């Protein structure tokens, strides 16, 4: 089972800072306590208490001589003033991102704004934020509640509003709220105060959920950000929320091939490692958690930090994104060595060359070529610098993706990868995720059939912070289809020919896509012969040549013709079998007045009983039988009545003429003399008349 841990799993910047200070007090043997749980993680809080740092419910619970730690999500303005005036020693571990919100609402409410807060009204952070509002404040947890605030309150046209959010609010939901707020509140100023670490964590969790069969979210059940991670992942794939490794025993991993793991901002590294170790049954080195911890090393000893300083510290992981130009020195299957003008040896791993897995640097590059690159990692010990061309390309063309999202532009890209929840499409070096539901592949279809195909898509969602884009092939298909339909109806006329694709079959006909518009070939139009079902002639997916037989522009209905004139049996007869032709035919039916013979498939002619033999016969079976092949002459074709006359007799040797025998016939006293031939001809005429 493949296990993938989110890069941002574990303590966020603010929590790491508060925890570091608490642990420092323990190490320095300084008596300390927290006002309420330091973080929303029961096991960690219990561990702190066992080491001497207990949680006080109220200020009166703080023991003499103890230093009070104000927790990360902050407290009310009134309580903070009380602490300052109490004479207690305290350490303010309130996250700078939370303090920034306090400043915003205090300033805006002082100017007369009514404050709208996206968050949980019972959460300590939100309670603290509201305390800094000088005037009215309203809390909502989703777009519907935001709308209710407008409906349930009598706001005037001159009222002004400011919108902020809890730092751990659902970034996806905030986008919906932001869109609705712009419609509902005309005098509105919006502040996106969701912590960048929270947004990053949520986006990574959703990305992992799309790529894995199952998600494990580690964190306290009373943690707001952990609960939101669980909710977001649950909407995408099977997800479990656990607080510790022992809870894994309640989860059935049977049939699960890949698991994504993320953790809330209050989840210790040790808990994450224990969960990973239990799942994999081996030691796992969680480099990401260590990197996150390192980002706050320089900040934890600073009592006061500005919002800008905190932001800089939290974005330290992006400092390596430095653009350079490298000259190709050597090309190998696994890496490309380049000179970037530094003492370290620069190299590009093969998977960092291009977002297109089919790209081959061995064929595309030569020594001396210059490449635009981004520094990913510097190793001074080994004297190497790892670089990426793929990521430079993605950044270079990212603006075009953003613009395409804004304008609704249809893009063309190549499907380079199939993952469990969808497709990866590359356009100009940028990877775009297309969910399976938006790929046009049916639920029971195979996504693998899209691999390496060129597709049209539109960008429906972007994350500017992480340069992630989501696309829809289905939406692009709808847009193109609509455009093609408008173009078709503007120029369509009866008789026009098209190459189409059979989309579906019914008992009465076949529906064909002729370029964004569907037309129907009636069953009788599929073949010159009688058929039982359209599938006797065409199948779904077949490419067919059709023409417009009838057009109803008002009701948008198209009748298509499929049968070709040159395939009409009567046209073939006219062309290849003129009157007088001598041919071989097969007897297919026998009646009392003659026999029907097949000239060629779907075309039959009649050999009258009088045309079977020279002599008079009682019935055709006396001379011929079914399936017998005989030679005939075409004596007549009536195209209007669709009748063909054939004669075997015409090809038989003429009988010798007998001597004329005069016979006296008494009729009205006048003698009549007839030859034998005349008598036979008369008999044949009578037989023919009887047959008719």
Biggest sheet character: 5 strands, mixed, barrel
Q: Could you give the count of β-strands? A: 32
Output the strand order for the largest sheet.
13-14-15-17-16
- What coarse outline follows from CA principal-axis ratios? elongated
Question: Cα distance, first to last residue?
Answer: 84 Å
Residues in helices, as a percent range: 25-40%
What fraction strand? Answer: 25-35%
* Uncertain residue ranges: 282-321, 664-673
Structural class: alpha/beta
Count the DSSP helices.
18
Calculate Rg over CA atoms: 43 Å
Oligomer: single chain
The chain-level mean pLDDT equals: 82
Write the layout of secondary structure elements.
Elements: E1 2-5, H1 13-27, E2 32-35, H2 42-50, E3 54-56, E4 67-70, H3 77-86, E5 90-92, H4 96-110, E6 114-118, H5 124-131, E7 137-140, H6 143-152, E8 161-165, H7 171-184, E9 188-190, H8 196-211, E10 214-218, H9 224-234, E11 238-242, E12 258-263, H10 269-280, H11 287-294, H12 307-314, E13 322-331, E14 335-339, E15 345-349, H13 361-364, E16 370-379, E17 384-388, H14 389-396, H15 398-407, E18 410-419, E19 422-427, E20 430-435, E21 454-463, E22 468-472, H16 473-491, E23 497-506, E24 509-513, E25 518-522, E26 543-552, E27 557-561, H17 569-576, E28 582-591, E29 594-600, E30 603-608, E31 629-638, E32 643-647, H18 676-691
Parallel strand pairs: 1-12, 2-3, 2-4, 4-5, 6-7, 6-8, 8-9, 10-11, 10-12, 15-17, 20-22, 25-27, 30-32
Antiparallel strand pairs: 13-14, 13-16, 14-15, 16-17, 18-19, 18-21, 19-20, 21-22, 23-24, 23-26, 24-25, 26-27, 28-29, 28-31, 29-30, 31-32
Helix pairs in contact: 4-5, 6-7, 8-9
